[in-house]
Structure formats: C-alpha cells, structure tokens
C-alpha cells in the first residue's frame, strides 16, 4: 500500500499518456489514413505467429518470411493478443501499451534520484517527447518492442543493477538487427562505468550477434540469400562498396543537409542539453551513424518512428546527467540542475504544438472524409479470403481478411483481385487499370468490378 501511495502520480501519468497515444493512433485509423504499408506487413507477420506458423509476409513476396527482411522474432509476444482480437487495431493498441509502460521505469527512477516532483516532471517530458509522438502517429513498427526494453535497461543501469541492465538491453537483438549496434554501445558505457568484464561481454554479444543475424540468419530466410538493406548505406549496389560510401558520406556530410542538424539539435533540446553530461548519451551514436550515413532522406529527420528508440536513452542520460551536475563543484551547474526538469517540461509542451499531438485539438482529426464510404465499398468488393494485390491506399484495410500482395509483386502470382487508389498513386497513375494489371501478370484476364471516386477493383476471370 505504501508503494501505491508513493507512486500513484506515475500511474496516473502513464494512464493519461496511454489514452493520449491511443486517441492519436486510433484517430488516424478512423480516418483510414495509411502513412505506409508497415502496419499491414506487421499484421501478416504476427498473424503467422498467432496461428503457430511462420511469419509469412506475402506483401513482400510470395511465401516471404519476415525473418528474411528484418530480424524481429520478439513480434511473437503479440501473437496471443492477435489470436484473440485479429485486427490491425490490436497492433496499434499494443504499441500504445508498450510505449506507455516505458514511462514507469523512467519516471520511478527519476523520482528516486531527483525527488518526487522533479522526477515526475522528467517523466512528463519523456511521455510527450517528440520522438514518441512521431512514432505513435505513423502506426505500428517493431521499434515499439524496443522502447520498454530500453527503458527498463536504462533504469536498471541508473540503479546500478548492472546484470539486469545488460539482460534487458541484450534482448534488443530480438527486435531488429540494427539494434545490435545499440547493444554494443551500451556495453561500452558499462565498461566506462567500471563494469569492465560485463561491458566487454555485452559489447561482444552486440557485435557478434548483429554479424550473425545480418550475415547468416537473415540471408538464410531471404529468398535471394542476402541482407537487402546494405544498399541503404550510400545507395550502392555492392555491400562493401555501399558501406564504405556511406561511411565516407557520413564524414563529409554529417551535418548536411540541415535537416540532420535540426534532428541533432532537437535530441539535445528535449533534455535541456543535460544528457550530454552522461556517458549514456553515447548509446544513441550507432543509430545516428547509420541513419545519417545512408542516402534515405526520411532517416534524417524527426518524423516517422526512427527516433522513438532514442527517447528512453536520452532521458535516462538526462537523469544521470542531473545527478552528476548536482554533485558538481560549480554553483552555476548545481543551480542549473535544479531548474532543468522544469525547463524540460516547458520544452515538451512547446514542441507538442509542432508535432502530432497538436492534431488532437483539430476537429478534422476525428472526421472521416467522404471517400471513406467509397473505400469501404471497394474493400467489400473483394470477398473474404480472396488473394488481392494492392497499392498503399487500402492495403492495411485488406490485410486482415485476405492474402495481400504488393501491387507490383512477383509476376508469377495470380491474385484474384487487384485494388487501386489512384488518388494517392502519385505520378503517372495507370489510365487503363485492366491493361496495367494484365501487363503485371502476363497470361491473365481481368475485368473491372468496382470503379468509383478514383478507387478501382479488378477481378481475375482467366489465367
């Protein structure tokens, strides 16, 4: 009971944050706004686990195993919930829960180290940080699984529970392959804190684990026997060449274009620059390196989900930094340590008006456009259980009850239906959808069964 009385503000903050995340996420779902195909991909993977089979993601190709794309076996923890509630909404709710849970270790630890109200302020700033808002807004991603692991691992580190912290962080290897670098960086921080043997082991596990995953495990599941994302570093076609090109580009253009500098600045601003005082901040370096080394522009900015894994690290570093600043001999630094948590709260509130949570005050966030009724009829034109190829427009809405392929999937596939959203197609949408589909899948014959308001559905009649 005493524990409950002490930490009820943490529980309240967690509940409020969860509800805010949920409203933001479900409002996008309510509007049928699909920012990418990710939610459909992860639903297919989790659906496979839920039915005790391989995580086949037909959107990536016929019989494509998700483990041949990204190494995310911890998605299996969502399978029981999806089995009970087979819907993409289950994944959206799960993401909100996972992120909200991470608030607890960060805030409880901050309150223990900094005091009740300053620690609660830190928790508030973390709960509504821009990186979390951006991730919730773009629907589900496997990084959501990493957020509580990082939060509990960082909290254990701050509480000097070294082995527990190491175990939490090593689990990141089951979330996504690039997090092996994060594991290695955390091992280096343990080493700097005097945990030499444990730090060396963790760093070694991170490096060797990632090498095995990228060099052996993923290629074993990949239909082409390779890791498909080497080319993201520098844009080259050969693995070594693109990696070297990416590292060269990193050296020459770490702060160019300016969007990279903007991202770095915002990462430092959210903790009022206090995180720089702690070696824990080094844990974000590998993520920033691979993001900035690549030629993929949406890795560079503050939108999408790529920064959510940085939030627990930066705020844990800020807690550690404040502890160190309070022990400083410089009166000015000690004084700054006392006001910094309040400054972080102010910064979080100000930035909220520039990031997705600002939409919660906009009535249009909750309005369904006139096209949604038409979109629903387009989905209804595809019988449950049928195979269907789709562009981004309705792919998420189709994934639960159909075998879904990307519209330009392997030409050997013969989807029963093909669905178009020509309004969101981009440049040069096909003028004749039947001719376009029959060109994609040679030897087939299709006919239009639905055509309304730039939604088109064609059905296979032969081939």
Fold and architecture overview:
The chain is an alpha/beta fold. The chain has 18 helices and five strands. A five-stranded mixed sheet has the order 2-1-3-5-4, with helices on both faces. Helix 7 (143-158) packs antiparallel against helix 8. The protein is globular, with a radius of gyration of 24 Å. The model is unreliable at 234-242 (pLDDT under 50).
Considering the chains and any ligands shown, give keywords for the structure.
alpha/beta; 5-stranded mixed β-sheet; 55% helix
Give the structure's gist in a few sentences:
With 463 residues, the protein is α/β, with parallel strands linked by helices. It has helices at residues 2-30, 38-50, 79-84, 88-114, 116-127, 130-137, 143-158, 162-170, 179-192, 196-221, 239-253, 258-269, 285-293, 311-326, 331-352, 371-380, 395-398, 433-440; strands at 387-390, 403-406, 417-421, 445-452, 455-462. It has 18 helices and five strands.
Major sheet details? 5 strands, mixed
Give the strand tally. 5
- Unreliable segments of 5+ consecutive residues: 234-242
- The best one-word shape is globular
* SSE string, helices as H and strands as E: HHHHHHHHHHHHHHHHEHEEHEE
Number of helical regions? 18
Give the end-to-end Cα distance, rounded to a whole number of Å: 69 Å
